[in-house]
Amino acid sequence: MSPGAAVGAPPVGAGHAPPSLPPEPKVTPMKKITIDPVTRIEGHAKIDIYLDDAGHVADTHFHVTQVRGFEKFTEGRPFYEMPSITARICGICPVSHLLASSKACDAIMAVAPPEAGAKLRELVHCAQFVQSHALSFFHLSAPDLLLGFDSDPARRNVFGLIDQNPEMAKMGVALRKYGQQIIEGLAKERIHASWIVPGGVNAPMSPEVRERTLAGLPAARALADKTLAFFKTVVDQFQEEISNFGTAPTMFAGMVDRDGGLQWYDGRLKFKDAEGATVSAGMRARDYAKFIGEASLRDSYLKAPYYKPLGYPAGVYRVGPLARLNVADGFGTPAADRELAEFRQRCGPVVHSSFHYHYARLIELLHGLEKIERLLADPSILSTHVRAHAAVNCLEGVGMIEAPRGVLIHHYKVNEQGAITWANLIVATGHNNLAINRGVMQVAKHFIEGDKLKEGMLNRVSALVRAYDPCLSCSTHADGTLAMEIALRGPDGTVLDRMG
Amino acid sequence: MPEKISIRIDGEYVAAQEGQTILEVARASGKYIPTLCWLESITPVGACRLCIVEVSGVNRLLPACTTPVQDGMSVTTHSEKLAAYRRIALEFLFTERNHQCAVCVSNNHCELQAMAQRLGVNSVRYAYTFPKLPVDVSHERFVLDHNRCILCTRCVRVCAEVEGAHVWDLSSRGIRSMVICDMSKPWGESRNCTNCGKCVQVCPTGALAEKGFAVEEMVKRDAKVTRLASRRGGHQ
Asked: What ipTM does the predicted assembly reach?
């Protein structure tokens, strides 16, 4: 998210005029339902749903309620401190910020990390995907999928999951543990590791860590296979959700290599339109401002990036697991490619339902494990040449990677001495902001009717947001318990009904 | 020959020489007194107030690093009162500047952090002042981050006494005190700095650091500087 944008800073991109703000929501005489906070997501958000006199959903607003300020308070800091500072944006995917930030610093130093340094960064990135995707599926979304959207909200959380399906809960813990232990083995710390630095990483991989990681791989693979097989047996039960969860066609963006294969660590950003035609084949990180515009929303601290050539808000696009599967030609690893073929056979060549973020996430989890195996099989990964040293050689740098939730961009400008003079961050969930907003409206319109509230209806609105696995404030965590409060107010503001 | 005297530290008789400080005598007899600004073989200044001790017959606390011993003196180095005041001194250091350990180049190698852990300061009871302070990155090899400075003046003393360049000084008074270079110039424009890096190596926190060192990477080597100072007949 961009606090800078939220408090009225001009959007990025030289010569780009900011799009006009959308009109203020009409509060009266409509009834308003508020979901605050949206639970089982990373970060804080609330949703307002406005009903007309007939009780139909007239409008919805998805608000991200926190401001962070990283772009501002890092001004003046030495650029090489940025990875560790921006890693604090998130406790779940700090590795993503460390990598995007370090890549931006690489650009400022005008160096490429040594081969082993780049591979080790890629390895830790894959481990991060495994643990993050496992967290999203098992801990945050599985309660909806396994216990039911309409199940008792007091039990519809990770604890309910442990009670009802302990096997599934243990699988989630085991997969997350495997990813986290790789990170710990390489970086000595699981969260906010200081190991990823500008120029590469600060220590080589020990053979023992390599052996230990390889030893745990078959068990992790078996769990990933089992989870995916299980998901495929239940996915058809959710036809109504699949048909109504953010199915409005949008563009998609994802990082690919020269051959069009999916890339998480390094590559170019490819945009496809809603029909699956390529509209931009290979955006380089440093050119992002030519392709991505950033709009400020009146009622959210999350800015809304859009595809610049189409303007705002027409240029809405999505990122993340589903977008990557829609954009890439393939994974380049056999099991994930097989699953991708089946995914396309089941759901079509371009999949729009945001419900399928879950499906895409599980295929990516499998790919992550395959990629870990491939990287570890390469003997050069044990090389001790893992870091390039340099001072400031370029006054600007952009780092772009695929975080578990989508494209993450860090852009810094420095003075001759290396102090940050300006920073811009486009965090993955931001790209999805417009699509989430539209999806919330669609789900609300389909599932909510009249002034009698059913908790399950509103849970589906939250679940739409949850499907994107958004990292909204990127550093706070939902604790898995239900903390939702919903108030239904009449035109004069009196509370007609309250739940939670 | 300095006259031999006897003092009591925590009730124990200890032999000392006239002219020695309480801290020197305590250290020589294996007694621990916490310090932050003190540095072996460098002139003590009593800036941090962590080495405060109780002396019988004196109704105020005295810094052990600058108080000379006297024959028959009875010193208490550890008491509830001392622990409380040392804690306050440390808490004030944390509130005066922006000490964000997690993102500091000296995290896990910082004397301020280690002292807080040793003295059990795991929270601060006073309001942080959050001053807006500059970071001087103008030097080619080193960086000065005022946010992490505790005004111990080790840099000032080492530069003047060991290197002989006297680049550093303190400007202003009280809470506005700042370490300044060459009478308030950016470090990179200093004509006196010899780029020796001694100030960096003796700085107890991440305030002075080598450029390009990422978080947790700045390990200081102050023993090299104090050994040099000792060989040159530094403060005895």
From this structure: 0.86
